[in-house]
Design a protein that fits this description.
With about 750 residues, the chain is an alpha+beta fold. It has helices spanning about 1-15, 15-35, 50-60, 90-100, 140-155, 175-195, 195-225, 230-260, 265-290, 300-330, 345-355, 360-370, 370-385, 405-420, 440-450, 485-505, 515-545, 550-575, 580-585, 595-625, 630-655, 665-695, 705-710, 720; strands at about 70-80, 105-110, 125-130, 160-165, 395, 425-430, 455-460, 465, 470-475, 505-510, 590-595. The protein is built from 24 helices and 11 strands. The chain is elongated, with a radius of gyration of 30 Å.
Length: about 750
Amino acid sequence: MATFLYRLGRLAFRRRHFVALIWVALLTLAGVGAANAPAAGSASFSIPGTEAQQAFDLLKERFPGMTPNGATARVVFKAPDGALVTAGDSKAVVEKTVKELRGGSEVVNVVDPFAAHAISKDGTTAYAQVTYKVSGMELKDSSRDALKSAAQDARDGGLTVEVGGDALMAVPETGATEVIGIAIAALVLVITFGSLVAAGLPLLTALIGVGIGVSSITALAKTLDLGSTTSTLAMMIGLAVGIDYALFIVSRYRAELAEGREREEAAGRAVGTAGSAVVFAGLTVVIALVGLAVVNIPMLTKMGVAAAGTVAIAVLIALTMIPALLGYAGRKVKPAGEKSKLLGGGRAKAAQQAAKPNMGTRWASFVVRRPIAVLLLGVLGLGAAAVPVASLTLGLPDDGAQPTSTTQRRAYDLLSDNFGPGVNGPLMVVVDAKASDDPKGAVTTVTDEIKGLKNVVTVTPAAYNRTGDTAVVTVVPGSKPSSTTTEDLVHDIRAAGAGITADTDAKLLVTGSTAMNIDVSQKLNDALLPYLALVVGLAFLLLIVVFRSILVPLKAALGFLLSVLAALGAVVAVFQWGWLSGLMGVEETGPIMSMMPIFMVGVVFGLAMDYEVFLVTRMREAYVHGENPGQAVVTGFRHGARVVTAAAVIMIAVFSGFIGSSESMVKMIGFGLAIAVFFDAFVVRMAIVPAVLALLGEKAWWLPKWLDRALPNVDVEGEALASATTDPDADPDRELVRA
């Protein structure tokens, strides 16, 4: 592989005009496609295999025209102090608002609070329930705008009006955080390379790759039913890995220049060595993202595949566009250790810096001398950070987790204070009595059984379909939707259903947004171990091929698990226990988002293997070329530590920008990914990995002879290039690095 990529790098350097033209054409084509594509809105949402989804499907079949999984909005009206919402002008404003809400094109039904007796006991508060044809993720912006407009009209009428429910679900705006992340990345690149031109190349290629990927997703969104969250994930991951991959190749190019090689040769060798690591690092990320299909949630699968496509584009751009741009840059990209004059560089200073061991060399030498102490300190530190995982509680956030400044949260609190917390998450019990000899008797049995359960406040009369063989019963719990008490009630109702089926032949299904959240959490929890086994297993096999070792990939996988557990522990401490919650802007602690563990496993594993591949391949390269194991560790750090540190800082900066989001889910994801990258890059890869390699010595690179013969030789280290010679007369236009 190294030889092939070496030739590719030199070809891209020589044919730079052609390569640049191809990528610009692809960017233009994707941009035109995105501009002309129909608006896709949000993707449809379904959770195959869950009881809540089965109930939704049954309701669609038995209740034609009903939209059980349609978006809902609860418009809460509160009269001024000393007044009643049922009297005079206040009642007229409510009735006018209900009439206005019914005019929406996607509205199925609006329940009048006066007809439904949805009035608080003190008569000061009422709420209207609005049901839509489509889910909250599919709802058009025009419907949301109409809902907000109706609420504002009611406020203008003198009432306090707040709107809750998933109808106001919207993808949070993250443009400002992306700009901050890019700005920090640019600063880190300038410090790392000491050159504005060299720093600009990774940014330029990453933006081109993200532009092609996101534009392609936008162009295909309608056809493939992709939501806006898909492009957000693709942008976040694509930008991070795009900068990293280009960073490693440019860094290797400058190292080759420092050894006196001419520019085309340096570009070829950079792509042949660092480019090989880019290919395999990219493959690990792709495996992790595509592996999300194991969860069997269509929306999550599409998000993973789309993000994986953006990563693949980032790899291709790094292998071709970077050497082409290096050809354009010429002498403006300086050899390693030499800064541009604009940033205070000079040949004398470069020579002085080259004579001194860098920070990576000094740190690696210390670790090699004290491997046991460093290993114990790293493992114990991460182990302590992972302790909170023992109390991890998973769930999906509801409006109660929103900031108090949002109308959703204020509506949630008004309903809880005046009607009880369970009103925010009623359960929908579907009774399929088609096989029963006495359908109505079966439904009565169900109703009586549910009324006898703990934590049940209200059970509404059953609503039958036209044929009378299916009924819907609404159950209002006494606890808030995201509480474990409500989850226990769902399980209790389902457990009671087993006995009811045996007695009456009627089938009982529990659904609704609260039950759906519980089922999704359980589905994600059940999929975590299979997903972990698949991703880690495939990547383990891939790393065996890369490193030609058993223990190095095993150490990489175990180190990753340790860093993820530590990161999850930090997430629990902040978002569930409330530690440093004020600093992080966490207004409401509660269960950890159920998608968080599997999402962190997928994304962080791919990124962690990036650092593993880039750092350890330099060590193996030195070992293959004759250095002893301890020297190889130091050599790997001398060449790779600065670049890996820069890559990790960039990644942390990008993810940390999302901590400032007002959305609790986005805040949690940003914090979790940032702290996970910090633990993995600076504790696992920079401390535990060299300590373990120093302790293992020659055994680290052991591979059974039969397996060595069976594995393909991909030559990531570029061993085949070490003895390669080039004909200086083959291309008279090649430019030498002049002393």
